[in-house]
Amino acid sequence: MMYYGTDFNNDIIIRDLRRLVNQIWKLLPMREHDEDWQTKKEAVLVELRGLGRMFGDELDFLIIVSSLEGLTEDTDFMVFRSMIFSIISTITELTAILDVRKS
Known about the structure:
Blueprint: E1 2-3, E2 6-7, H1 10-25, H2 27-32, H3 37-54, H4 59-70, H5 77-102
Antiparallel strand pairs: 1-2
Helix pairs in contact: 1-5, 3-4, 4-5
């Protein structure tokens, strides 16, 4: 996939998505320990929006970004936790799709 004069192959994108999964996982303990999870969430969203521009035709990116956007400090922790698991599951599915496409 060519962007900004650089060819980004699926392996690079898959590694980046896996890295983002780790960043999203960190939101759970940060929220639980009253740390600044909102700043971490915003950083992840910025990266996901950038990837979304590259893969705008993937519904999964919309689901991931909109789910993260919806998490606020008012979100019940169990709902928050459930949504984090759902987001990570969606990213994992997207990673599998990209992995198949590279073959």
